[in-house]
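Reviewers of the previous submission asked for a worked example of the structure-prediction workflow described in the proposal, so we include one complete record here. The input consisted solely of the amino acid sequence. No template or homolog information was supplied to the procedure at any stage.
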Amino acid sequence: MLKFCEFWAIFDFDLSSGKIDYIKTYEHCDSEEQINKKEEEGFYYMNLKINLSNRNFRETKIITPKYRHELFL
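From that input alone, the workflow returned the following structure tokens.
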């Protein structure tokens, strides 16, 4: 069984449209060859109104629908 040893995550949230793009890349470290696994997900989150005056009031937790990753704003 291969073990994931490192991962990178990219999270992009467009405030005007509510579109979230999330990409998470895993790397296997048990094998000699380079094996990567990538999870890409794009969805819309419209329940949030953020502007410059209220951006630090509370921490918002978003769970991605496909892979169930937790994102915090």
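Residues 55 and 68 are 24 Å apart (CA to CA). We consider this example representative of the routine output the project will generate in years two and three.
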